[in-house]
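Crash report, auto-generated. Payload:
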Amino acid sequence: MDFSPSPRVEELRERIAAFLDEHVYPVELEALHALDTEVGPGKPYPDILVAIRERAKAEGLWNLFLPDEEHGTGLTNWEYGMLCEAMGRSLVAPMAFNCSAPDTGNIEILVDHGTSEQKDTWLRPLLEGDIRSCFSMTEPETSGSDPTGLRGTAVLDGDEWVIDAHKWFTSGAVGADVAIAMVVTDPDAAPHRRASMILVPTDAEGFNLIRPVSVMGHSGGPGHCEIRYEGCRVPKENLLGERGAGFKIAQDRLGPGRIHHCMRAIGAAERGIELMCKRANTRISFGGPLADKQFIQDFVAKSRIETDGARLMVLNAAWQMDEYGKREARQAISMTKVVAANVVMDVLDRAIQVHGALGVSDDTPLAVMWRSLRMLRLADGPDEVHKMVIAMRELNRWKSEAGAEPAQKPAAVAAGAS
Amino acid sequence: MDFSPSPRVEELRERIAAFLDEHVYPVELEALHALDTEVGPGKPYPDILVAIRERAKAEGLWNLFLPDEEHGTGLTNWEYGMLCEAMGRSLVAPMAFNCSAPDTGNIEILVDHGTSEQKDTWLRPLLEGDIRSCFSMTEPETSGSDPTGLRGTAVLDGDEWVIDAHKWFTSGAVGADVAIAMVVTDPDAAPHRRASMILVPTDAEGFNLIRPVSVMGHSGGPGHCEIRYEGCRVPKENLLGERGAGFKIAQDRLGPGRIHHCMRAIGAAERGIELMCKRANTRISFGGPLADKQFIQDFVAKSRIETDGARLMVLNAAWQMDEYGKREARQAISMTKVVAANVVMDVLDRAIQVHGALGVSDDTPLAVMWRSLRMLRLADGPDEVHKMVIAMRELNRWKSEAGAEPAQKPAAVAAGAS
Amino acid sequence: MDFSPSPRVEELRERIAAFLDEHVYPVELEALHALDTEVGPGKPYPDILVAIRERAKAEGLWNLFLPDEEHGTGLTNWEYGMLCEAMGRSLVAPMAFNCSAPDTGNIEILVDHGTSEQKDTWLRPLLEGDIRSCFSMTEPETSGSDPTGLRGTAVLDGDEWVIDAHKWFTSGAVGADVAIAMVVTDPDAAPHRRASMILVPTDAEGFNLIRPVSVMGHSGGPGHCEIRYEGCRVPKENLLGERGAGFKIAQDRLGPGRIHHCMRAIGAAERGIELMCKRANTRISFGGPLADKQFIQDFVAKSRIETDGARLMVLNAAWQMDEYGKREARQAISMTKVVAANVVMDVLDRAIQVHGALGVSDDTPLAVMWRSLRMLRLADGPDEVHKMVIAMRELNRWKSEAGAEPAQKPAAVAAGAS
Amino acid sequence: MDFSPSPRVEELRERIAAFLDEHVYPVELEALHALDTEVGPGKPYPDILVAIRERAKAEGLWNLFLPDEEHGTGLTNWEYGMLCEAMGRSLVAPMAFNCSAPDTGNIEILVDHGTSEQKDTWLRPLLEGDIRSCFSMTEPETSGSDPTGLRGTAVLDGDEWVIDAHKWFTSGAVGADVAIAMVVTDPDAAPHRRASMILVPTDAEGFNLIRPVSVMGHSGGPGHCEIRYEGCRVPKENLLGERGAGFKIAQDRLGPGRIHHCMRAIGAAERGIELMCKRANTRISFGGPLADKQFIQDFVAKSRIETDGARLMVLNAAWQMDEYGKREARQAISMTKVVAANVVMDVLDRAIQVHGALGVSDDTPLAVMWRSLRMLRLADGPDEVHKMVIAMRELNRWKSEAGAEPAQKPAAVAAGAS
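Recovered output after restart:
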């Protein structure tokens, strides 16, 4: 048992922290504003971010998420998890290092499943940071938790897929060059073999970006877009991975993706604690600093405890993915997802409360983090679906007496993990 | 003991509900948008709201909040509380009936403390709904929970007050005709006798509206404004109430104001329950409606229980104000404030969760209610200050043995209330 | 709307409080001990309690629970609710006033359904306080939440019922003269018409008291007993109420019973607050009384808020029973049950925490109240079943648009109550 | 980063689990009963436990807690932590392996601070398991959280210490041969140099065992005893460690002791999950097993998540103690203490709830674990004191900008830990 980071990740983490201090925090709110107003077709990033990204790329703080050693850094999941936390401290930081969703997940599946032509066309410029991409799965009419209900379709017509689908929460579509659409290609196959993934250039005819859905009052920037694919035609070579493998690829994509989201949430919680404490140390009320009031101490202590607990759970899940594979780590990943998404909301809520009126204003990054991260309790599976799945796995362990003493490997720290 | 509404309030409530169904809900999101974009100097309300307001006024659903029988309806606090709940179901509803903060509070203090000239100039057009007003108390540099720290000043120079103050969260300043500024006029008086209230026309020189502070991503409409009073001069007749009575008037204003906020919060929670249930009844997932899942049932049951409990507490506090006066009802009001501000957030959070991605979008009124109402846990005293005060009153009851059996009046239902 | 107690109940409440101060609290722990050790066949109450009971009876503080004016006081449910709260402040108090479960419920159904012979034999001595009774419904093998699963049977053999059943949690069986057993008499009838109630003298052959089940470490006194009815014969005249009406009678019994339990829980919570505050006011730690620490203030404030909220909900449910009947008040009763059973545990837990090591000891009444009252979250329906039922009623309100504006009577304060 | 147990600890854990399955669980309730009734002066353990202990000793499952390689097994804190968890699954298990408090802590300080004569007299028979010991620190009149308030004294009179002190919660005094008393020996020294530890044979004159304090209804067995040291004389050689070093030794004793308590709590929570799940899988209600109800799934999922999170926090704290020392690990230990003590209560509460009436009975080990473990939120520092300390350390990190990037070692997983 060893809780130390490797020297390599320790060094990277320090460099990221220093980069954030120097180049990101000072322009954080400005960059968020630029992102909202400057992004559009042909312009994936606002100028202020382009400059920051060039610097990060030059310093080698780039594409750190890729476990693949050819294209990426070859960090393990737990190693990258630690870096991800650092990047989660600011909503603009992931973009600074070309490590932002949904590009990260899209890049991963292009690395794993893309043809060499697909790699040339989309993977390379994504890795270079020249373009952005989006991921088109969620549909307004069907429950995302139950993917067998998917309705959007693609039909092979000669050499082309003809796509008809109504999607929303296609995040990042504004300013993206390409979408990966998940649609039913084989309606008569077994439920989990019905869908495929298809690459769709955003300038394809029939790719109609209806609107960036206003989410928590915000519709600027890359957006969470509503898209109508209406007789949208793309070459049959745009199929990504095997036909019918859509669910499997989506599932593979989700494992590390959930961990990334969770680690960023831990980082956001850490930022919340930092701001909460700095405010408490300096704000005077009723004759002394807020830091002297036990109500505030209670906030700080709970936030520290919950954040440290959540971090350990996420790192453990990442380590399980590294050691035993994504499938074996499912229980840990689900638990992590529930915990991190809730902890970050509670910590940010307390940080807001400690800031008083300033906390609900947008003069600090707290309010925007709070309302943006609310989505995490729904994205990639709502809390309730994860809890149902966690419970059923646990309950099944105890169905036979044999289950009473599980022989699994990571038993020490994850008695409930398989 | 009797929990029935009076026939009069029952009838008003039904009329308000019908009015909302017919005239408000159908255009609710549109009206919110118009409010954000059309309001400005000389234009207190957008056209869509002007039309709705005219209709409400014509139907006599107007100024219901005023306990004063000359200018208002003469409803008791608990009676108006019930109507306030109904109006809280939509963020635009209070404006429809000329019952929105901060006008309500400003009108009350003008009725109680205004000179007849002040009444002619400001009270009458406010009651008619021709103008809006704002209230300028909170300062960025000082803690609102501890009003003795107030820094803004007004100095009498001949026949004029010269005001210098830095205020923010002056809600509704955009499009308002007049502000009531709370400033220190007597710096050497006892701590609670230092401040006064002064009426300041928003077109007075030196009344500088710096910006509507962006709050939870929102800076449109009437706004929560940052104001700099810089050598701002108004006639000495603009003093509202007695010199040095600022705190007392503010305190009087807060009692009913808190109850109104809380009752509206109950209404917002009821709206959340309605939308949560309707969604649960119709959304299919995993082979059946969400309503059949116990996770959702747990949300519904907790929401119903907490909302009904909070309503009873608010009505009881209102009734105590009616029966025993604002001062005697303080404990009940403080408790009410903590409960209602928290319950509404929890209920809306669950309603969002049940709606999935739709819940965080602005295609329903849930997300905007959730992020707007977050402020209620801070406004009019943060939870923690109220809890401190509640606890100290309770602890003091038990300091002498005499306290063990309090002889107070409303003992039946509020053993801890004095 | 009126939250005042009636003068009559106000006067009774004061007399009960004075009685407790003078005669109960001073011997509370002693009386609990005597109850544990002296009770047995032919000895329903220990001497110390007999003396207290005589005094209470002489003062007319006796059988206050009975709404029936012939045998009881004719108080309404909400009136008695207030008295019940006062009695809930001590675990021995209800016995002092001949108002303890399960006698109260048994007396009520004897009044409503007993033949005149049954009344002579059992009702009269119960009202006089000469005997105790018990209620035999719960079975170890079947779920109490789902009463249609009941297994115990009674078969009419000539002029006698022959009862075979395995019951437990037959509370108060040690020292009781009579049990009311709920058993299946009509196995082929519709599910809710299968059971009946039968009066069984505890000295009947075949009434085998196996053991007082140790509950939370406690098996003394009247006990929560395991009973085996083995070919137990009683005259057919011992049928209580109509044949097949068992469920209906049990349901009727539960309504007021739940309210009584809940009001006593409120009283226990009030006792917890009193002891918590007195301790906090006097215990010195880190240089001052605990009352000065905000951690403790947070405990006190939350306890006061939750207890006052719960009280209002219980009184409202009682008032609804009085005004609209038990059936109409079901939703309010279910909500009340969940709230009160949880609030009292939280408040007592905080009171224990404030007392430190003393709190977990039995040198105060807190620890015994805490572990005894844990059962309330299970008895008369576990929280989860009540929440399920509450949710389904609420969800059904919104199934048709008509439901959106309920026309029910007590709408003001119980929008969700029907 | 590595979450695997070492092969050695993995093997020991499996042997302990097998031992519990075979020898402990089948007689668990019986052994608890024997412990309550058979223990007394000269009889440290009941026969049934003596037999189990002999077997465990023969198998080498003995004194596993001792980091000292001469007397113990030389396991690290995190390694023993894992074993401790296994033992926490049953209240009698720690005794089976001679690993129960307070003997473990007493043995540790005898190893570290005992003279060779003290070791011969007390350490050896404790290690052999021939005697038991107790620890006499807590006083009814002073706050245990604030040890500088200690009142009990020892005065050197010639060759003897004369002890006068009033202690309680001297756990295990019934049947113990020796007590370690913490008393003020140097009243004029600096606050943390005033107290010393003294070994007191329980048959010394003036060692008056007043009573085993009834705790949560339980006063049997080794007890949590009230002791009056009244002119109690022991040889001056009975001073344990240096004079005035009492606080330091107590503090050293607490570090691992807290971890042990917490790991046992994790084990108790795991037992709760096991019983909860087995019950849910087999109990039928409303037409299916409880396991199919989402209310129960919610219990299971939350319990699994919280327990796994707590385990990781405790193991991390243990590992920090191993790597950086007790002092550096303080923050982690405090956090661990709060989390584990609360999680186990919540999990056991849910397990009780799933068992219905059976859950509050003593027919399962749940109810006794629940009421016994309540003390853990108070023992070794109440939650509130730990939270205050955690918060102040965290707040201090942010007082200077330097604090913003802590240079500490275990930064990866415990950003807030120093």
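Post-recovery validation: Chain C has three domains: 7-100, 133-242, 247-412.
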